[in-house]
Amino acid sequence: MQPTSSMKEEFLQKWQMGLQIYRPLIDNTSVSERRKAIKLSADVAMASLRRGTTCWSRALIQKTATEDNFLVRQMLSGIKAETLINKKLPKVMCHRKIVRRSKKILRRRKSRSAIEEVAAKARKLVKKKTQGLRNVVPGGEFMSNDVLLIQETLDYIVSLQTQVNVMRSIVDAAEAGSERTAYYLGKPKFAIEDG
Amino acid sequence: MLEGLVSPESLSLSYADMSVPERLKWLQQHQQQEVLSLSSNDSPDLLQILQFHGSNNDELLQSTFSHFQMVGSGFGTNYNMGFGHSHEAMDGYISRTSSCQIHSPDTMGVMLKNSEENRAISLKNKRKSEVCLIIVKTREEEKTEKKIKVEAETESNISNKEASSDTSKETSKGASQIQKLDYIHVRARRGEATDRHSLAERARREKISKKMKYLQDLVPGCNTVTGKAGVLDEIINYVQSLQRQVEFLSMKLAVINPELELGVEDLSVKQFQAYFTNFPVVIASKPSVMVDVPLFPLDQQGSLNLSVSNPNQTSIDAPSESWETQSQSLFASVLR
Protein backbone atom coordinates (compact mmCIF):
# COMPACT_ATOMS: atom_id res chain seq x y z
CA MET A 1 0.00 0.00 0.00
CA GLN A 2 1.29 3.43 -0.80
CA PRO A 3 0.19 6.79 0.51
CA THR A 4 -2.79 8.00 -1.46
CA SER A 5 -3.63 11.59 -2.16
CA SER A 6 -6.80 11.33 -0.15
CA MET A 7 -4.80 10.30 2.85
CA LYS A 8 -2.47 13.21 2.30
CA GLU A 9 -5.33 15.65 2.05
CA GLU A 10 -6.93 14.37 5.18
CA PHE A 11 -3.66 14.56 7.01
CA LEU A 12 -3.14 18.11 5.84
CA GLN A 13 -6.57 19.19 6.99
CA LYS A 14 -6.15 17.67 10.40
CA TRP A 15 -2.72 19.11 10.78
CA GLN A 16 -3.93 22.57 9.89
CA MET A 17 -6.71 22.22 12.39
CA GLY A 18 -4.19 21.33 15.04
CA LEU A 19 -1.95 24.25 14.20
CA GLN A 20 -4.84 26.63 14.38
CA ILE A 21 -5.18 25.77 18.02
CA TYR A 22 -1.68 27.06 18.52
CA ARG A 23 -2.03 30.20 16.54
CA PRO A 24 -3.34 32.48 19.28
CA LEU A 25 -0.27 31.69 21.38
CA ILE A 26 2.21 32.41 18.66
CA ASP A 27 3.64 35.77 19.49
CA ASN A 28 6.27 35.09 22.03
CA THR A 29 7.19 31.50 21.49
CA SER A 30 10.60 30.26 20.63
CA VAL A 31 11.62 28.13 17.73
CA SER A 32 11.74 25.01 19.79
CA GLU A 33 8.24 25.50 21.06
CA ARG A 34 6.98 26.08 17.60
CA ARG A 35 8.78 23.01 16.41
CA LYS A 36 7.24 21.01 19.17
CA ALA A 37 3.81 22.32 18.32
CA ILE A 38 4.26 21.44 14.70
CA LYS A 39 5.54 18.00 15.41
CA LEU A 40 2.90 17.14 17.97
CA SER A 41 0.04 18.29 15.84
CA ALA A 42 1.48 16.40 12.90
CA ASP A 43 1.75 13.24 14.98
CA VAL A 44 -1.77 13.48 16.28
CA ALA A 45 -3.04 14.16 12.78
CA MET A 46 -1.25 11.10 11.48
CA ALA A 47 -2.55 8.92 14.26
CA SER A 48 -6.10 10.14 13.94
CA LEU A 49 -6.16 9.07 10.31
CA ARG A 50 -6.53 5.55 11.58
CA ARG A 51 -9.37 6.39 13.91
CA GLY A 52 -8.17 4.23 16.72
CA THR A 53 -8.13 0.97 14.85
CA THR A 54 -4.45 0.32 15.10
CA CYS A 55 -2.35 -0.20 18.17
CA TRP A 56 0.38 2.21 17.20
CA SER A 57 -2.03 5.07 16.63
CA ARG A 58 -3.53 4.68 20.06
CA ALA A 59 -0.11 4.50 21.64
CA LEU A 60 1.02 7.58 19.75
CA ILE A 61 -2.01 9.58 20.81
CA GLN A 62 -1.45 8.61 24.39
CA LYS A 63 2.18 9.58 24.18
CA THR A 64 1.40 13.01 22.85
CA ALA A 65 -1.33 13.38 25.40
CA THR A 66 1.29 13.16 28.11
CA GLU A 67 3.09 16.09 26.53
CA ASP A 68 0.16 18.25 25.59
CA ASN A 69 -3.17 17.09 26.79
CA PHE A 70 -5.03 20.16 25.68
CA LEU A 71 -3.99 19.88 22.08
CA VAL A 72 -4.98 16.27 21.84
CA ARG A 73 -8.34 16.86 23.35
CA GLN A 74 -9.08 19.69 21.00
CA MET A 75 -7.98 17.86 17.94
CA LEU A 76 -9.83 14.71 18.70
CA SER A 77 -12.92 16.26 20.13
CA GLY A 78 -15.12 15.48 17.21
CA ILE A 79 -13.87 12.08 16.38
CA LYS A 80 -13.06 10.03 19.37
CA ALA A 81 -14.15 10.09 22.93
CA GLU A 82 -12.13 10.90 25.98
CA THR A 83 -11.75 7.19 26.50
CA LEU A 84 -8.98 7.04 23.99
CA ILE A 85 -7.00 9.69 25.76
CA ASN A 86 -7.72 8.55 29.23
CA LYS A 87 -7.13 4.91 28.66
CA LYS A 88 -4.00 3.88 30.41
CA LEU A 89 -1.37 2.08 28.50
CA PRO A 90 -1.53 -1.61 29.25
CA LYS A 91 1.12 -3.02 31.49
CA VAL A 92 4.08 -4.60 29.88
CA MET A 93 3.30 -8.19 29.14
CA CYS A 94 6.21 -9.79 30.87
CA HIS A 95 9.51 -8.81 32.28
CA ARG A 96 11.66 -9.95 29.46
CA LYS A 97 14.93 -9.98 31.32
CA ILE A 98 13.66 -12.32 33.95
CA VAL A 99 12.11 -14.63 31.41
CA ARG A 100 15.26 -14.65 29.37
CA ARG A 101 17.44 -15.47 32.32
CA SER A 102 15.29 -18.34 33.40
CA LYS A 103 15.23 -19.68 29.87
CA LYS A 104 18.99 -19.51 29.70
CA ILE A 105 19.30 -21.55 32.83
CA LEU A 106 16.93 -24.14 31.53
CA ARG A 107 18.70 -24.34 28.25
CA ARG A 108 22.15 -25.11 29.65
CA ARG A 109 21.98 -28.80 29.05
CA LYS A 110 20.83 -28.80 25.46
CA SER A 111 22.83 -30.40 22.69
CA ARG A 112 25.63 -28.47 21.10
CA SER A 113 25.81 -29.69 17.55
CA ALA A 114 27.20 -27.23 15.07
CA ILE A 115 24.08 -26.89 13.03
CA GLU A 116 21.94 -26.25 16.04
CA GLU A 117 24.26 -23.60 17.31
CA VAL A 118 24.09 -21.72 14.05
CA ALA A 119 20.34 -21.95 13.99
CA ALA A 120 20.15 -20.83 17.58
CA LYS A 121 22.33 -17.83 16.85
CA ALA A 122 20.18 -16.90 13.88
CA ARG A 123 17.10 -17.12 16.01
CA LYS A 124 18.68 -14.96 18.66
CA LEU A 125 19.58 -12.37 16.10
CA VAL A 126 16.07 -12.28 14.74
CA LYS A 127 14.71 -11.89 18.24
CA LYS A 128 17.05 -8.99 18.89
CA LYS A 129 15.91 -7.31 15.73
CA THR A 130 12.25 -7.72 16.55
CA GLN A 131 12.96 -6.20 19.93
CA GLY A 132 14.62 -3.30 18.17
CA LEU A 133 11.56 -2.92 15.99
CA ARG A 134 9.36 -2.87 19.02
CA ASN A 135 11.39 -0.02 20.41
CA VAL A 136 10.97 2.01 17.27
CA VAL A 137 7.30 1.51 16.56
CA PRO A 138 5.11 3.37 19.04
CA GLY A 139 3.34 0.98 21.32
CA GLY A 140 5.53 -1.86 20.17
CA GLU A 141 6.15 -3.22 23.62
CA PHE A 142 2.51 -3.96 24.03
CA MET A 143 2.13 -6.04 20.95
CA SER A 144 2.17 -9.56 22.17
CA ASN A 145 2.87 -11.49 19.01
CA ASP A 146 5.04 -11.02 15.98
CA VAL A 147 2.25 -11.09 13.47
CA LEU A 148 0.61 -8.10 15.07
CA LEU A 149 3.93 -6.33 15.24
CA ILE A 150 4.56 -6.72 11.55
CA GLN A 151 1.05 -5.65 10.64
CA GLU A 152 1.39 -2.54 12.74
CA THR A 153 4.79 -1.78 11.30
CA LEU A 154 3.35 -1.96 7.82
CA ASP A 155 0.61 0.47 8.65
CA TYR A 156 2.93 2.74 10.55
CA ILE A 157 5.37 2.96 7.67
CA VAL A 158 2.64 3.95 5.25
CA SER A 159 1.38 6.62 7.61
CA LEU A 160 4.88 7.94 8.18
CA GLN A 161 5.41 8.19 4.47
CA THR A 162 2.24 10.20 4.14
CA GLN A 163 3.30 12.50 6.91
CA VAL A 164 6.76 13.04 5.51
CA ASN A 165 5.47 13.67 2.01
CA VAL A 166 2.98 16.29 3.09
CA MET A 167 5.36 18.00 5.46
CA ARG A 168 8.08 18.18 2.91
CA SER A 169 5.80 19.66 0.30
CA ILE A 170 4.64 22.29 2.76
CA VAL A 171 8.18 23.12 3.71
CA ASP A 172 9.25 23.45 0.15
CA ALA A 173 6.27 25.55 -0.74
CA ALA A 174 6.98 27.79 2.20
CA GLU A 175 10.60 28.02 1.23
CA ALA A 176 9.69 28.84 -2.29
CA GLY A 177 7.35 31.49 -1.08
CA SER A 178 9.89 33.14 1.18
CA GLU A 179 12.57 32.94 -1.42
CA ARG A 180 10.33 34.39 -4.02
CA THR A 181 9.58 37.38 -1.92
CA ALA A 182 13.23 37.73 -1.02
CA TYR A 183 14.23 37.49 -4.62
CA TYR A 184 11.81 40.08 -5.80
CA LEU A 185 12.52 42.47 -3.01
CA GLY A 186 16.25 42.10 -3.35
CA LYS A 187 16.75 40.99 0.20
CA PRO A 188 19.37 38.45 1.07
CA LYS A 189 18.31 34.86 1.21
CA PHE A 190 17.46 33.14 4.41
CA ALA A 191 16.50 36.35 6.05
CA ILE A 192 15.56 34.88 9.33
CA GLU A 193 15.21 37.73 11.70
CA ASP A 194 13.73 36.39 14.88
CA GLY A 195 14.89 33.38 16.74
CA MET B 1 -26.39 -49.16 0.53
CA LEU B 2 -24.45 -47.58 -2.17
CA GLU B 3 -27.44 -47.02 -4.29
CA GLY B 4 -27.97 -43.56 -5.51
CA LEU B 5 -24.45 -42.76 -4.57
CA VAL B 6 -23.06 -42.92 -7.99
CA SER B 7 -24.88 -42.06 -11.12
CA PRO B 8 -23.94 -44.45 -13.87
CA GLU B 9 -23.33 -41.86 -16.48
CA SER B 10 -20.75 -40.08 -14.42
CA LEU B 11 -18.89 -43.28 -13.97
CA SER B 12 -18.56 -43.77 -17.65
CA LEU B 13 -15.74 -41.30 -17.50
CA SER B 14 -12.59 -43.28 -17.40
CA TYR B 15 -10.76 -42.80 -14.21
CA ALA B 16 -7.40 -42.96 -15.78
CA ASP B 17 -8.02 -39.74 -17.62
CA MET B 18 -8.88 -37.74 -14.64
CA SER B 19 -6.07 -36.35 -12.59
CA VAL B 20 -6.45 -35.92 -8.90
CA PRO B 21 -7.76 -32.37 -8.88
CA GLU B 22 -10.31 -33.21 -11.52
CA ARG B 23 -11.38 -36.15 -9.53
CA LEU B 24 -11.71 -33.96 -6.53
CA LYS B 25 -13.90 -31.58 -8.45
CA TRP B 26 -15.99 -34.44 -9.60
CA LEU B 27 -16.38 -35.48 -6.05
CA GLN B 28 -17.36 -31.99 -5.07
CA GLN B 29 -20.12 -32.02 -7.57
CA HIS B 30 -21.52 -35.12 -6.08
CA GLN B 31 -21.35 -33.98 -2.53
CA GLN B 32 -24.83 -32.63 -2.60
CA GLN B 33 -26.27 -35.79 -4.00
CA GLU B 34 -24.50 -37.87 -1.50
CA VAL B 35 -25.62 -35.86 1.42
CA LEU B 36 -29.17 -36.17 0.36
CA SER B 37 -29.11 -39.75 -0.56
CA LEU B 38 -27.06 -41.28 2.14
CA SER B 39 -28.94 -43.09 4.74
CA SER B 40 -27.58 -44.26 7.98
CA ASN B 41 -25.11 -46.97 7.39
CA ASP B 42 -24.05 -49.16 10.17
CA SER B 43 -22.01 -51.59 8.23
CA PRO B 44 -18.98 -52.63 10.17
CA ASP B 45 -17.11 -53.16 6.95
CA LEU B 46 -17.16 -49.50 6.25
CA LEU B 47 -15.94 -48.73 9.69
CA GLN B 48 -13.16 -51.13 9.20
CA ILE B 49 -12.21 -49.46 6.00
CA LEU B 50 -12.20 -46.04 7.43
CA GLN B 51 -10.50 -46.71 10.67
CA PHE B 52 -6.90 -46.93 9.75
CA HIS B 53 -5.69 -48.62 12.76
CA GLY B 54 -2.46 -50.30 12.07
CA SER B 55 -3.46 -51.68 8.74
CA ASN B 56 -1.22 -51.68 5.81
CA ASN B 57 -1.87 -49.73 2.70
CA ASP B 58 -2.17 -52.67 0.45
CA GLU B 59 -4.46 -54.53 2.70
CA LEU B 60 -6.68 -51.56 2.93
CA LEU B 61 -6.78 -51.15 -0.77
CA GLN B 62 -7.74 -54.69 -1.30
CA SER B 63 -10.32 -54.72 1.41
CA THR B 64 -11.99 -51.64 0.06
CA PHE B 65 -11.91 -52.93 -3.38
CA SER B 66 -13.25 -56.31 -2.50
CA HIS B 67 -16.03 -54.74 -0.55
CA PHE B 68 -16.82 -52.51 -3.38
CA GLN B 69 -16.91 -55.31 -5.82
CA MET B 70 -19.21 -57.18 -3.57
CA VAL B 71 -21.65 -54.39 -3.56
CA GLY B 72 -21.09 -53.37 -7.10
CA SER B 73 -22.77 -56.39 -8.44
CA GLY B 74 -26.07 -54.92 -7.50
CA PHE B 75 -25.69 -52.06 -9.89
CA GLY B 76 -26.38 -51.60 -13.51
CA THR B 77 -24.22 -52.84 -16.25
CA ASN B 78 -22.56 -49.55 -16.90
CA TYR B 79 -21.25 -49.45 -13.49
CA ASN B 80 -19.87 -52.91 -13.55
CA MET B 81 -18.26 -52.54 -16.86
CA GLY B 82 -16.62 -49.40 -15.79
CA PHE B 83 -14.86 -51.33 -13.17
CA GLY B 84 -14.65 -54.67 -14.72
CA HIS B 85 -12.12 -54.02 -17.35
CA SER B 86 -9.94 -51.72 -15.54
CA HIS B 87 -9.74 -52.81 -12.05
CA GLU B 88 -6.35 -54.37 -12.14
CA ALA B 89 -4.66 -51.34 -13.48
CA MET B 90 -6.59 -48.77 -11.60
CA ASP B 91 -7.65 -50.30 -8.41
CA GLY B 92 -5.81 -47.55 -6.68
CA TYR B 93 -7.92 -44.87 -8.25
CA ILE B 94 -11.13 -46.74 -7.82
CA SER B 95 -10.63 -47.50 -4.22
CA ARG B 96 -9.76 -43.90 -3.72
CA THR B 97 -13.01 -42.70 -5.04
CA SER B 98 -14.89 -45.56 -3.59
CA SER B 99 -13.60 -44.94 -0.15
CA CYS B 100 -14.58 -41.37 -0.52
CA GLN B 101 -18.07 -42.21 -1.43
CA ILE B 102 -18.57 -45.01 0.93
CA HIS B 103 -18.43 -43.11 4.12
CA SER B 104 -21.56 -41.71 5.52
CA PRO B 105 -22.26 -39.14 8.16
CA ASP B 106 -22.51 -41.73 10.81
CA THR B 107 -19.28 -43.43 9.96
CA MET B 108 -17.73 -40.04 10.02
CA GLY B 109 -19.05 -39.60 13.46
CA VAL B 110 -17.58 -42.88 14.51
CA MET B 111 -14.26 -42.16 13.01
CA LEU B 112 -13.92 -38.93 14.81
CA LYS B 113 -15.14 -40.33 18.01
CA ASN B 114 -11.82 -39.88 19.61
CA SER B 115 -11.94 -36.20 19.10
CA GLU B 116 -14.95 -34.56 20.53
CA GLU B 117 -17.79 -36.49 19.09
CA ASN B 118 -20.39 -33.84 19.47
CA ARG B 119 -18.45 -31.31 17.54
CA ALA B 120 -17.65 -33.83 14.89
CA ILE B 121 -21.23 -34.77 14.35
CA SER B 122 -22.31 -31.20 14.17
CA LEU B 123 -19.64 -30.53 11.59
CA LYS B 124 -20.08 -33.80 9.82
CA ASN B 125 -21.42 -32.52 6.57
CA LYS B 126 -18.53 -30.19 6.13
CA ARG B 127 -16.02 -32.66 7.39
CA LYS B 128 -16.99 -35.28 4.92
CA SER B 129 -15.49 -33.59 1.94
CA GLU B 130 -12.42 -32.72 3.87
CA VAL B 131 -11.79 -36.19 5.14
CA CYS B 132 -12.44 -37.39 1.67
CA LEU B 133 -9.65 -35.24 0.43
CA ILE B 134 -7.39 -36.30 3.19
CA ILE B 135 -7.95 -39.90 2.34
CA VAL B 136 -7.07 -39.12 -1.23
CA LYS B 137 -3.93 -37.44 -0.15
CA THR B 138 -3.05 -40.38 1.96
CA ARG B 139 -3.17 -42.69 -0.98
CA GLU B 140 -0.86 -40.55 -2.92
CA GLU B 141 1.86 -40.52 -0.39
CA GLU B 142 1.70 -44.16 0.63
CA LYS B 143 3.24 -43.83 3.95
CA THR B 144 1.70 -45.44 6.96
CA GLU B 145 2.66 -42.66 9.27
CA LYS B 146 0.60 -40.33 7.21
CA LYS B 147 -2.56 -41.95 8.41
CA ILE B 148 -1.93 -40.62 11.82
CA LYS B 149 -1.23 -37.35 10.18
CA VAL B 150 -4.59 -37.52 8.53
CA GLU B 151 -6.39 -37.81 11.77
CA ALA B 152 -4.16 -35.25 13.35
CA GLU B 153 -4.74 -32.92 10.48
CA THR B 154 -8.45 -33.32 10.75
CA GLU B 155 -8.29 -32.69 14.42
CA SER B 156 -6.08 -29.70 14.02
CA ASN B 157 -8.36 -28.36 11.37
CA ILE B 158 -11.26 -28.72 13.68
CA SER B 159 -9.40 -26.96 16.41
CA ASN B 160 -8.23 -24.32 14.02
CA LYS B 161 -11.72 -23.73 12.85
CA GLU B 162 -12.94 -23.35 16.36
CA ALA B 163 -10.13 -21.07 17.23
CA SER B 164 -10.00 -18.78 14.29
CA SER B 165 -13.01 -19.04 12.14
CA ASP B 166 -13.15 -15.50 11.05
CA THR B 167 -9.68 -15.03 9.69
CA SER B 168 -9.19 -16.02 6.13
CA LYS B 169 -6.01 -17.90 5.42
CA GLU B 170 -4.39 -19.63 2.50
CA THR B 171 -4.96 -23.26 1.62
CA SER B 172 -2.46 -25.93 0.76
CA LYS B 173 -2.06 -27.18 -2.76
CA GLY B 174 -4.50 -29.79 -3.90
CA ALA B 175 -6.99 -28.95 -1.21
CA SER B 176 -8.50 -26.09 -3.09
CA GLN B 177 -11.37 -24.48 -1.26
CA ILE B 178 -14.01 -27.06 -1.39
CA GLN B 179 -16.34 -25.11 0.74
CA LYS B 180 -15.98 -21.64 2.03
CA LEU B 181 -14.40 -22.59 5.32
CA ASP B 182 -12.16 -20.03 6.89
CA TYR B 183 -9.38 -21.99 8.39
CA ILE B 184 -5.96 -22.82 7.25
CA HIS B 185 -5.00 -26.00 5.46
CA VAL B 186 -1.51 -26.71 6.54
CA ARG B 187 0.10 -29.53 4.71
CA ALA B 188 2.45 -31.59 6.79
CA ARG B 189 5.49 -32.40 4.79
CA ARG B 190 7.23 -35.71 4.75
CA GLY B 191 8.90 -36.55 7.98
CA GLU B 192 7.74 -33.47 9.84
CA ALA B 193 5.99 -33.47 13.16
CA THR B 194 2.28 -33.69 12.88
CA ASP B 195 0.93 -32.78 16.24
CA ARG B 196 -1.36 -29.90 16.78
CA HIS B 197 1.21 -27.52 18.09
CA SER B 198 3.65 -27.80 15.28
CA LEU B 199 0.93 -27.40 12.71
CA ALA B 200 -0.28 -24.27 14.40
CA GLU B 201 3.26 -23.02 14.60
CA ARG B 202 3.80 -23.64 10.96
CA ALA B 203 0.64 -21.75 10.10
CA ARG B 204 1.86 -18.85 12.18
CA ARG B 205 5.23 -18.89 10.53
CA GLU B 206 3.70 -18.81 7.09
CA LYS B 207 1.60 -15.84 8.06
CA ILE B 208 4.64 -14.01 9.30
CA SER B 209 6.63 -14.69 6.16
CA LYS B 210 3.78 -13.47 4.02
CA LYS B 211 3.62 -10.21 5.91
CA MET B 212 7.38 -9.83 5.72
CA LYS B 213 7.09 -10.04 1.97
CA TYR B 214 4.71 -7.09 1.98
CA LEU B 215 7.18 -5.18 4.08
CA GLN B 216 9.95 -5.97 1.69
CA ASP B 217 7.97 -4.45 -1.13
CA LEU B 218 7.25 -1.36 0.88
CA VAL B 219 10.70 -0.57 2.17
CA PRO B 220 12.99 0.52 -0.63
CA GLY B 221 16.21 -1.37 -0.90
CA CYS B 222 14.98 -4.42 0.92
CA ASN B 223 14.91 -6.74 -2.02
CA THR B 224 18.61 -7.39 -2.02
CA VAL B 225 18.73 -8.56 1.55
CA THR B 226 17.78 -12.10 2.36
CA GLY B 227 16.87 -13.46 5.70
CA LYS B 228 14.64 -12.15 8.37
CA ALA B 229 17.34 -10.39 10.35
CA GLY B 230 18.54 -8.30 7.45
CA VAL B 231 15.06 -7.32 6.39
CA LEU B 232 14.16 -6.36 9.93
CA ASP B 233 17.33 -4.33 10.14
CA GLU B 234 16.43 -2.42 7.01
CA ILE B 235 12.95 -1.83 8.27
CA ILE B 236 14.23 -0.45 11.55
CA ASN B 237 16.62 1.87 9.77
CA TYR B 238 13.90 3.05 7.45
CA VAL B 239 11.44 3.80 10.21
CA GLN B 240 14.09 5.64 12.17
CA SER B 241 15.05 7.70 9.18
CA LEU B 242 11.43 8.60 8.54
CA GLN B 243 11.01 9.70 12.12
CA ARG B 244 14.15 11.79 11.91
CA GLN B 245 12.89 13.40 8.76
CA VAL B 246 9.68 14.38 10.48
CA GLU B 247 11.59 16.04 13.27
CA PHE B 248 13.85 17.82 10.89
CA LEU B 249 11.05 19.04 8.70
CA SER B 250 9.11 20.33 11.65
CA MET B 251 12.17 22.24 12.80
CA LYS B 252 12.63 23.70 9.39
CA LEU B 253 9.02 24.69 9.17
CA ALA B 254 9.17 26.30 12.56
CA VAL B 255 12.06 28.42 11.40
CA ILE B 256 10.73 29.40 8.04
CA ASN B 257 7.21 30.00 9.09
CA PRO B 258 6.96 31.97 12.28
CA GLU B 259 3.27 32.46 11.98
CA LEU B 260 2.56 28.76 11.79
CA GLU B 261 0.53 29.56 8.78
CA LEU B 262 0.26 26.66 6.45
CA GLY B 263 -0.86 28.73 3.49
CA VAL B 264 -4.19 28.92 1.82
CA GLU B 265 -6.94 27.39 3.84
CA ASP B 266 -8.53 25.19 1.25
CA LEU B 267 -5.36 24.21 -0.42
CA SER B 268 -5.66 20.96 -2.23
CA VAL B 269 -2.79 18.84 -3.32
CA LYS B 270 -3.18 19.76 -6.94
CA GLN B 271 -2.93 23.40 -6.06
CA PHE B 272 0.29 22.75 -4.31
CA GLN B 273 1.79 21.12 -7.30
CA ALA B 274 0.74 23.92 -9.57
CA TYR B 275 1.94 26.56 -7.18
CA PHE B 276 5.26 25.01 -6.92
CA THR B 277 6.04 24.32 -10.52
CA ASN B 278 5.27 27.90 -11.48
CA PHE B 279 8.56 29.12 -10.13
CA PRO B 280 11.24 26.83 -11.34
CA VAL B 281 13.76 29.61 -11.90
CA VAL B 282 13.87 30.76 -8.36
CA ILE B 283 14.05 27.35 -6.93
CA ALA B 284 16.83 26.13 -9.14
CA SER B 285 19.14 28.76 -7.87
CA LYS B 286 18.81 27.59 -4.38
CA PRO B 287 21.66 25.47 -3.17
CA SER B 288 19.56 22.96 -1.49
CA VAL B 289 20.06 19.27 -1.21
CA MET B 290 16.52 18.45 -0.54
CA VAL B 291 14.39 18.66 -3.57
CA ASP B 292 14.40 18.97 -7.28
CA VAL B 293 11.20 20.72 -8.00
CA PRO B 294 9.91 18.74 -10.96
CA LEU B 295 10.24 15.61 -8.94
CA PHE B 296 7.96 16.99 -6.36
CA PRO B 297 5.87 14.10 -5.36
CA LEU B 298 2.71 15.39 -3.88
CA ASP B 299 0.42 13.55 -6.13
CA GLN B 300 2.94 11.05 -7.24
CA GLN B 301 1.89 7.95 -5.55
CA GLY B 302 4.41 5.53 -4.43
CA SER B 303 7.90 6.72 -3.99
CA LEU B 304 9.00 8.70 -1.09
CA ASN B 305 10.82 11.94 -1.85
CA LEU B 306 13.94 10.43 -0.57
CA SER B 307 14.59 7.94 -3.24
CA VAL B 308 13.51 10.26 -5.98
CA SER B 309 15.52 13.32 -5.15
CA ASN B 310 18.78 11.71 -4.31
CA PRO B 311 19.57 9.14 -6.89
CA ASN B 312 23.22 9.22 -6.07
CA GLN B 313 22.73 8.11 -2.58
CA THR B 314 22.69 4.42 -2.12
CA SER B 315 21.44 4.17 1.37
CA ILE B 316 18.42 5.76 2.82
CA ASP B 317 20.11 7.12 5.88
CA ALA B 318 22.66 9.22 4.12
CA PRO B 319 20.30 11.87 2.70
CA SER B 320 18.83 12.79 6.01
CA GLU B 321 22.22 13.13 7.52
CA SER B 322 23.48 15.36 4.75
CA TRP B 323 20.41 17.56 5.17
CA GLU B 324 21.04 17.85 8.79
CA THR B 325 24.67 18.78 8.47
CA GLN B 326 24.02 21.36 5.82
CA SER B 327 21.08 22.90 7.47
CA GLN B 328 22.65 22.92 10.84
CA SER B 329 25.20 25.35 9.60
CA LEU B 330 22.30 27.33 8.27
CA PHE B 331 20.32 27.43 11.42
CA ALA B 332 23.22 27.60 13.76
CA SER B 333 22.45 31.14 14.66
CA VAL B 334 18.83 30.34 15.20
CA LEU B 335 19.07 27.22 17.23
CA ARG B 336 19.46 27.48 20.94
UniProtKB/TrEMBL annotation, chain A:
It is found in: Nucleus. Pfam families: IBH1_N (PF26576). PANTHER family: TRANSCRIPTION FACTOR IBH1-LIKE 1 (PTHR33124). This is IBH1-like N-terminal domain-containing protein. The keyword Nucleus applies. The keyword ATP-binding does not apply. InterPro entries: bHLH_AtIBH1-like (IPR044549), IBH1-like (IPR044660), IBH1_N (IPR059002). Residues 5-66 form the IBH1-like N-terminal domain. Its main location: nucleus. It comes from Brassica cretica (Mustard). Keywords: Nucleus, Transcription, Transcription regulation.
From TrEMBL, chain B:
Residues 163-172 have a biased composition (Basic and acidic residues). InterPro entries: bHLH_dom (IPR011598), bHLH_ZIP_TF (IPR024097), HLH_DNA-bd_sf (IPR036638). Its main location: nucleus. The keyword Ribonucleoprotein does not apply. It is found in: Nucleus. Residues 144-178 are annotated as: Disordered. GO terms for cellular component: nucleus. GO terms for molecular function: DNA binding; DNA-binding transcription factor activity; protein dimerization activity. Pfam families: HLH. Residues 192-242 form the BHLH domain. Keywords: DNA-binding, Nucleus, Transcription, Transcription regulation. This is BHLH domain-containing protein. It comes from Brassica cretica.
